[in-house]
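Bench notes, afternoon.
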Amino acid sequence: MRFDGDADHPVCGMSLAIDAVGGKWKMHLMWVLGAGPQRFGEIRRTLTGVSEKVLAENLRQMEASGLVHREIYPEIPPRVEYSLTPLGRELEEALRPLEAWGDRNRDALTNRPLAPAS
């Protein structure tokens, strides 16, 4: 399977999935939004350490890729909520075994000495 798809050779499905959740915050966003619709401030408080700029960029990218829905409510002041789309929910379900693997192997993964720098 090719990783740099063209008209005759599709991109590897794993590459597509990794692109969808790649980066430091997208998998965390999947977890937060998996709990249900959230406002921007709620997401930011849950994901300590993410800047407003980076959070907004990641949400826009995930919205553009069809994983996240942005709902604007016609109120004063306007209220905006983010939620997973059906495609996002499917991806969130696919990521659950990865989370379970991390939970099962937490000790082995966190108690290893750092590898020497090469």
